[in-house]
């Protein structure tokens, strides 16, 4: 019986790959999973290679695993995922201590590569082992991306858009529901481009129609929706849906037209404003999450000021800000870079503005009633559980501390009674 420790880095899309590897290994019946690297016979690091900080974290974790191997040379170190896919030759050359490398397109061969054992599986995705809390799961509906944003390394790593067949995605979702999943996160590099590669422009709506009929799934949350691919039919579907949450994650990345053009984004500021108005008008209770890149090479002071004033005007419910990372082999690489201290000061300023918006937004929720999904008992606040309304995505938005003792996955009606911080709330159950 081999003891295996797994470290999964990067985004939820990468986590799904890790879950698939773990499921395949578990299906052999020859492995047991451990948390401590010291106890492991095999250490698997599923890496991220998207931007510099993620690459550095991946390298640190690989080096940690190699240190463990030095102490116990019989240990095996496995490096999988995006970093290896992007820098195959360099990693093989620089890290001779690594026993096995697995590319993002080699997940199904992982048992053979790690355990030197063949396993015949018709539908590996049905073996997937959920590493999130059991009531939450990600459903990855496609690989790669064809949007060709100039700063993005994903097409270099995962290639052009390759959508999964609709029947396969639905079959996997049913399997997740059978395992007790209540909240399903529909993810891809661009979920709204689902089936574009097959000539189908309303693929996401067709998929959601089927996902909504699955018994056991109560909430469906859409992530990574590209601004100019959000169709009227998708907006109408979400507006009228019983299960698809009134929550849109729309990464705008910038708002100045010059910067957007140099980023290779296929829309203008005006397009973004029209979309935001449309979403807010057609779905009155909508929660809008977005992300922005700060310090892109074509972002001067004027362009940054425009973004800052846009943030103040629009008042997004949630916004993530990331310093631009200059990535070799991307089209934006030749545009050069701006000093890190400039990026840092802009980042601090815009985050400060956003935090004051958060506080205002949370204040508006006092006295309101919501259905909350329970995640876990709270360590910070004994006697409370950590929960979320439709307004909060798992691990990236604020939470609601709910008074009482409820089970993970339970959905509880509650009233918001106080702020716990500028992003977190306190709730009291109703009719309990």
The named CATH superfamily of the largest domain? tm_1862 like domain
Please give the share of residues in helix: 25-40%
CATH domain topology of the largest domain: pyruvate-formate lyase- activating enzyme
CATH architecture of the largest domain: Alpha-Beta Horseshoe
Distance between the termini: 47 Å
- Largest pleated sheet: 6 strands, parallel
Strand order of the largest sheet: 6-9-10-11-12-13
Strand-residue proportion: 15-25%
- CATH class label of the largest domain: Alpha Beta
Describe this structure in words.
By secondary structure, the protein is α/β, with parallel strands linked by helices. The chain folds into three domains: 2-124, Methylthiotransferase, N-terminal domain (Rossmann fold), CATH 3.40.50; 130-363, pyruvate-formate lyase- activating enzyme, CATH 3.80.30; 369-429, OB fold (Dihydrolipoamide Acetyltransferase, E2P) (Beta Barrel), CATH 2.40.50. Helices cover 34% and strands 22% of the residues. It is built from 13 helices and 18 strands. The strands form four sheets. The protein has a six-stranded parallel sheet. Strand 12 (287-294), helix 12 (301-314) and strand 13 (318-323) form a beta-alpha-beta unit. Helix 7 (166-178) runs parallel beside helix 8 (203-211) and helix 12 (301-314) packs parallel to helix 13 (340-363). The termini are far apart. The mean pLDDT is 93. Catalyzes the methylthiolation of an aspartic acid residue of ribosomal protein uS12. GO terms for molecular function: 4 iron, 4 sulfur cluster binding; aspartic acid methylthiotransferase activity; metal ion binding; protein methylthiotransferase activity. Keywords: 4Fe-4S, Cytoplasm, Iron, Iron-sulfur, Metal-binding, Ribonucleoprotein, Ribosomal protein, S-adenosyl-L-methionine, Transferase. Its EC number is 2.8.4.4. Its cofactor is [4Fe-4S] cluster.
């Amino acid at each position: 019986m081999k003891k295996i420790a797994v470290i999964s880095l990067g985004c939820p899309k990468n986590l799904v790959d890790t879950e698939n590897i773990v499921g395949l290994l578990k299906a052999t019946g020859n492995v047991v999973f451990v948390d401590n690297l010291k106890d492991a016979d095999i250490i698997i690091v599923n890496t991220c290679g998207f931007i510099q900080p993620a690459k550095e974290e991946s390298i640190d974790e690989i080096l940690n695993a190699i240190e463990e191997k030095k102490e116990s040379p019989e240990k095996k170190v496995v490096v999988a995922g995006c970093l290896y896919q992007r820098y195959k030759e360099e990693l093989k050359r620089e890290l001779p201590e690594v026993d096995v490398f697995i590319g993002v397109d080699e997940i199904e061969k992982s048992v053979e590569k790690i355990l030197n054992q063949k396993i015949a599986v018709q539908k590996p995705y049905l073996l997937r082992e959920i590493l999130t809390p059991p009531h939450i799961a990600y459903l990855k509906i496609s690989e790669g991306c064809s949007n060709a944003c100039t700063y993005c390394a994903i097409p270099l790593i995962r290639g052009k858009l390759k959508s999964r067949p609709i029947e396969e995605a639905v079959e996997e979702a049913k399997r997740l529901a059978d395992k007790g999943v209540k909240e399903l996160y529909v993810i891809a590099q661009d979920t709204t481009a689902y089936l574009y590669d097959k000539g189908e422009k309303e693929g996401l709506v067709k998929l959601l129609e089927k996902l909504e009929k699955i018994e056991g799934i109560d909430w469906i949350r859409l992530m990574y929706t590209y601004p100019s691919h959000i169709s009227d039919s998708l907006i109408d579907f979400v507006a009228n849906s019983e299960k698809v949450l009134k929550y849109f994650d729309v990464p705008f990345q910038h708002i100045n037209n010059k910067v957007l053009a140099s980023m290779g984004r296929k829309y203008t500021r005006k397009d973004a404003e029209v979309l935001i108005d449309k979403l807010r008008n057609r779905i009155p209770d909508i929660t809008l999450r977005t992300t922005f890149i700060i310090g892109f090479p074509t972002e001067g002071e004027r362009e940054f000021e425009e973004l800052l004033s846009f943030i103040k005007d629009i008042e997004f419910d949630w916004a993530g800000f990331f310093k631009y990372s200059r990535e070799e082999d991307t089209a934006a690489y030749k545009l050069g870079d701006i000093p890190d201290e400039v990026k840092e000061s802009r980042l601090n300023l815009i985050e400060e503005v956003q935090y004051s918006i958060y506080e205002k937004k949370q204040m508006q929720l006092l006295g309101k009633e919501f259905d909350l999904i329970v995640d876990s008992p709270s360590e910070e606040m004994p006697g409370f559980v950590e929960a979320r309304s439709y307004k909060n995505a798992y691990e990236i938005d604020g939470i609601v501390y709910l008074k009482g003792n409820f089970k993970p996955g339970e959905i509880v009606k509650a009233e918001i009674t106080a702020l716990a911080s500028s992003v977190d709330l306190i709730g009291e159950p109703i009719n309990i």
